[in-house]
Amino acid sequence: KLREGAYNFVIYTYDNKNHSSVLLNASGTVYGQSYASSLINRRLKEFGYSADGSKLNFSWATSNLDEVGVELLYRHRDGSMRTAVFPPDKISSSLSDFDANTNLKYRTLFKPDPNAVDTFFVDYAELTVPAFERELDKSKFSLYMLPTDATTAHGWVMPHMWDGNYDNGFATINQMPQWFTFDTGVSASPSKFKIWQASDRIYEKENMRKFEIWGSGNPTSDGSWDSWTKLADCESFKPSGLPGTESNAADIAFAKAGEDFILPPGLPKVRYIRIKVLETWGKAVFVTIGELNIYTNDK
């Protein structure tokens, strides 16, 4: 057994009469534990579901010169353990036949020389598969006015709440508490709401502080609450904790990024959303919202 390092060899061949050939010089390198200990896994920049939830997409950093592939160990949908090898020249790859309820492991494979006999590898790194989540298509949202709902006022109509323009928004008439309703256009179990405050009054005036989110598959036409299910009790968060309408730069940046309101798992599928506002940041008697996204774990 040779120790790790570079070697020069003098080679002769012999026939059956013990006649030797001319001298042949050859060189080679022995790789072992020292080389193996210098190896690290190829960096996974990000991974997550495709838009329709059918695949996991992987984005890789540039490969090491000695890398010959990334081996992914996963449980197949039929329960068996399988491997997939992604080539080193690819910075993106995908997997579609995995069991979404299990985690994955990957390791990087190396050969210090293309003609090397052995393939080296590092320890497996475990990947936690994130929960699938997609945004509902806001082009399907529409106003759904019921008799007891607060109406639009001040020229800020409800469709501004999902038009992708963060410089305007939706505003209501004066009354508190109040609620308003809209149709998402699809039946889904909501997992998260992302809400942007009206940008000209962050943590002030009419932006929502305490509110409830309700859902229904078929609202009663009289505007009552009989056909509605409460999905979440929500309170807007201010990172600084400053009192009242006071805020600092970190608060403003947090609000401008959109605030997430995570809903409990296992909610029923609903098509219609009703938001009941209990309190605004400035104790105002009407409400403003800059923009609103809704997400679901449904595929």
Descriptive terms for the model:
mainly beta, 5-stranded antiparallel sheet, single chain, 299 residues
Walk me through the topology.
Layout (H helix, E strand, L loop, with lengths): L4 E7 L12 E7 L2 H5 L6 E6 L6 E5 L6 E9 L5 E6 L5 E4 L8 E7 L9 E2 L3 E3 L6 E2 L6 E2 L26 E2 L6 E11 L1 E7 L11 E9 L12 E7 L13 H8 L2 E4 L7 E11 L7 E2 L1 E6 L3
Antiparallel strand pairs: 1-2, 3-4, 4-7, 5-6, 5-8, 8-9, 8-10, 11-21, 12-14, 13-20, 14-19, 15-18, 15-21, 16-17, 16-19
Tell the overall outline: elongated
Give the fraction of residues assigned to helices.
under 10%
Mean pLDDT: 92
| Uncertain segments | none
Short characterization:
The protein is mainly beta and 299 residues long. The protein has two helices and 21 strands.
